[in-house]
Write a structure and sequence with these properties.
Length: about 575
């Protein structure tokens, strides 16, 4: 029988902690290294060894002892560093998982985590263990505002940081000052997103931009809805010459006065590498577009221009087409909801032939486009067009016919939106018939409020069976109350097999005092939801579902969510 001492020894070895195992491994490596070291005499030629014996070369005993001490010190430091790293990463994991997120040494996303000031302070102390961190997202945590300095003080530990997102954090001017003072600690920072922080406006932005250095690496700057004032725009304009690497600037939802527009655009000529400029809902007017047109000559590399939701700019597009025609690299143009006039629409048709690289065009919510769509389609580079958004454009029967005729040429089309176009109802076959069966790249199809009929949805089911919709991820069929039960049964039954990539489905109805029941076709939908691997969102608003039917749908969706975790 084994002795009690042997038994206790084996039990003790089984209970050793992870730290003990790590220390043991390090000791074994150290011992192995020491065993491999050769005697000092082997480093000398025989003659030199003899000289040592004869006293010609004095023995360096003090030096040897000192070297041994240094080796021992280095090994101890290495052990401390490795063990500290293991313990530190354990603290990081515990902190991140406590917030319901997954730890990642390179990308840390803590958005919507209800972080407190204490959490921010704890995160700051953990940065020393995140030396490989490249992306940090703390967006939509209200209490980050006012406590950011505790974090920025430790940014020197994450010198590889490339992206910092602080959207909706209620940042204060003091936060921005602290962020500006820490910019030297993160020299590789490329992405700064401070959107939806009202505190950025009102001289807060200057606290940040005044700390920028010439040639800084910032490539993407987003300041959406920051309540920027004329003084802020001026400060930004003065900082733009320093940001020589700037490629993407987003100032959406900040009302920019004409004076600010002139200040901004006159400074943008220093941003020679600018590729994307977004001025969505900035209150631009006709004169502002004229100023922008003059500045466009300095943007030879501009690839995306967004002037959407600037209703006051109506009539201004016609005044900047001469400059717009020089933008030969422009691949995306968004001018939706700009109240384009007939003159604007004609000017657009004239300038499109010069935009040979154009792949994305959004002219939605401009009624005048419907009158000239046929002319517009005749000049668009259809074979390379990827996104075509024509929703709420007042498409007539003739313009819809022109679109149907153009579809076979749209071989690279990924997104098509013709929602709120009544001319589609009863004629969906015209649109679907031109799509290729095997090589269709369509990923997003939106047909909301198109007066679709049962026959239209039957054609959609047939197209799905042929493989036309095999790449579609988002399908919007909402607000089409004229579709009968047989149409939905066909789409979610025999047509579901052709929707393998579907992620989002919307078949909601308009609010009604007497909404119809979904029972006749819901079993087909439930079976489709269960079998379609990527489907994660289903909208059925204003349909009547029994409680047991709701429970079944929720149960299926819950299982899919857990399976995807």
């Amino acid at each position: 029988m084994e002795s009690s001492d042997a038994q206790r020894s084996r039990d003790g070895s089984q209970k050793r902690s992870a730290i003990d195992l790590i220390m043991n491994q390090i000791r074994r490596k150290t011992s192995f290294t020491e065993r491999r070291q050769k005697p000092v005499g082997f480093l000398f030629r025989p003659g030199e060894n003899n000289d040592r014996k004869n006293g010609g070369i004095p023995e360096m005993k003090e030096s040897d002892n000192s070297e041994g001490k240094n080796t021992e010190s280095e090994n101890t430091d290495s052990v401390d560093t490795e063990v500290g790293s293991v313990v530190g990463w354990g603290r990081v994991k515990q902190f991140v998982e406590k917030l319901g997120k997954k730890p990642d040494s390179q990308t840390l996303s803590l958005s919507h985590c209800d972080l407190t000031a204490t959490d921010v302070l704890e995160l700051a102390t953990l940065l020393t263990f995140l030396t490989q961190l490249e992306e940090l997202d703390l967006s939509w945590n209200d209490l980050v505002g006012g406590s950011l300095k505790a974090l920025t003080f430790h940014l020197q530990h994450v010198g590889k940081l490339r992206g910092l997102r602080l959207c909706g954090c209620r940042l204060t001017a003091q936060d921005l000052t602290a962020l500006g003072e820490s910019l030297d600690s993160v020299p590789l920072l490329e992405i700064v997103d401070l959107s939806w922080n009202a505190g950025v406006g009102g001289a807060g932005l200057r606290s940040l931009t005044s700390q920028l250095r010439y040639g800084c690496m910032i490539r993407e700057l987003r300041l959406v809805d920051c309540q920027l004032t004329d003084a802020d725009i001026k400060a930004l304009g003065q900082a733009l010459p320093l940001m020589t690497n700037l490629e993407d600037l987003d100032l959406s939802c900040n009302r920019i006065a004409t004076g600010g527009v002139r200040e901004l655009f006159s400074s943008l000529n220093a941003a020679h590498g600018l590729r994307s400029l977004t001025l969505h809902m900035c209150g631009l007017e006709q004169d502002d577009l004229c100023i922008l047109g003059e500045a466009l000559q300095f943007f030879p590399t501009l690839q995306r221009l967004d002037l959407s939701a600037n209703k006051g700019a109506s009539g201004g597009l016609a005044k900047m087409t001469k400059s717009l025609a020089q933008m030969t690299h422009l691949s995306g143009l968004d001018i939706h909801l700009c109240c384009l006039t007939e003159e604007d629409a004609i000017a657009l048709v004239q300038v499109i032939p010069s935009l040979s690289a154009l792949k994305e065009l959004d002219v939605s919510s401009n009624k005048k486009i419907g009158d000239c769509l046929q002319s517009l389609l005749s000049v668009l580079p259809l074979p390379v067009t990827r996104r075509l958004l024509l929703n709420n454009c007042g498409l007539s029967a003739d313009s819809y016919q022109a679109l149907g005729s153009a579809v076979p040429s749209l071989s690279q089309l990924e997104r098509l939106n013709v929602s709120w176009s009544k001319s589609v109802g009863g004629n969906l076959k015209l649109l679907l018939g031109g799509l290729p069966c095997t090589s269709c790249k369509l990923q997003d199809l939106r047909l909301s409020s198109c007066d679709l009929t049962t026959e239209d949805v039957l054609h959609l089911a047939s197209a799905s069976k042929r493989g036309v919709l095999s790449q579609v991820k988002r399908l919007d069929l909402s607000y089409n109350g004229g579709v009968g039960d047989s149409g939905w049964v066909a789409l979610f039954g025999e047509g579901a097999g052709g929707l393998r990539a579907l992620e989002e489905l919307d078949v909601s109805l308009r609010p009604s005092s007497s909404p119809p029941p979904a029972s006749p076709w819901l079993p087909a939908l439930l079976e489709a939801v269960a079998t379609l691997p990527s489907l994660a969102h289903v909208a059925l608003q204003h349909w009547v579902l029994r409680q047991d039917e709701r429970d079944k749908l929720e149960n299926i969706m819950s299982k899919k969510r857990h399976a995807g975790m």
